[in-house]
Amino acid sequence: MKIVFLGTPPIAATCLEALAREGRHQILSVATHPDRVAGRGLKSVPTAVKATALGLGLPVLEVSDAKDPAFARDLAALQADLLVVVAFVILPVQVLSAARLGAVNLHGSLLPRWRGAAPVQRSVEAGEPSTGATVFRLDAGVDTGGIVARETIAVGPDETAGEVLTRIGALGGPLLLRALDHLEAHPEDRGIPQDPSLATRAPKLFPEEGALDWSLPAVRLHDKIRAFHPSPGAWCRPGGILVKIWRTRVLQESVSGVPEGWATRLPDGRVVASCGSGALELVEVQPEGRRRQSGADWFNGLRAAGPVVLS
């Protein structure tokens, strides 16, 4: 099948590389976002997908506005059978119809659960023990099209959203290949309809959402910290200084004599935060303007004589 690949971040680049390596389907072109300026030297940095495409010798189409009619015309001129989308942008109808069989998308959840921009993060935040990936037909709705293929994976109790995303990227290529092979043999298949009554929303994460409410149970806080790793990060403000909490470990028991929202050092050296129920060991933290460090090193640097309030 002749395809055009659309994507931007590393997870998309992993899928593109897998499709190209397998070689069963011809990649006519790759569409991605323009280079961005980054770093102190203000250098132009290509997207992960562009860098991968150039390394594979594939032509690249840089797209700043997917709603620009010229983009749909450029895609239609390629005469592709199918558009394959991984972590790009919401596409207008004229783009979806630019290929003979329309478009499919790889989504980081078991649709219809977690429709939206942050499916992996919201699944981890909810403490779900499993998630997965779905290849589905794109239509005018947001993640509402028919399901072509999907696969489930288990999520560990301490696994971060970033780690889950990496695993989904690894399974995304084979899952897309399965879907493409199926659609090549059954081009009329619109996929299995989703049940809208089972749908949940997965909106984008914003930095201000990362504020930790220590009155919540330790397990819920732990899941939030995992979900906000590696971006945008969960945080608190002990002494008015922003401290990002990157990794924690759940303790089922409460810390005797320490009120919720305070951190203390245990006799064995661990630094723990008392929560609404249970407690969290602060495994890895990062004070503003400093490197990541262990919770113990951070607490030692405070030179506190006793427990420290975290907010």
Q: Can you describe this structure?
A:
The longest helix is centred in the middle third of the chain and has 25 residues, at 161-185. The protein folds into 2 domains: 2-198, 3-Layer(aba) Sandwich (Rossmann fold), CATH 3.40.50.170; 207-309, Methionyl-tRNA Fmet Formyltransferase, Chain A, domain 2 (Roll), CATH 3.10.25.10. The protein contains 8 helices and 16 strands. Helix 1 (10-22) runs parallel beside helix 2 (48-55) and helix 5 packs antiparallel against helix 7. With 311 residues, it is of the alpha+beta class. A hairpin with a 4-residue loop joins strand 3 (36-38) and strand 4.
Number of helices: 8
Order of helices and strands: EHEEEHEHEHEHEEHHEEEEEEHE
Strand residues, percent: 25-35%
Structural class: alpha+beta
**CATH second-level architecture of the largest domain:** 3-Layer(aba) Sandwich
Q: Approximately how much helix is present in the residues?
A: 25-40%
- Strand order across the biggest sheet? 5-2-1-6-7-8-9
- What's the structural domain tally? 2
The major sheet is characterized as: 7 strands, mixed
Quote the distance from N terminus to C terminus.
Answer: 56 Å
Given as residue ranges, the uncertain stretches (5+ residues, pLDDT < 50) are: none
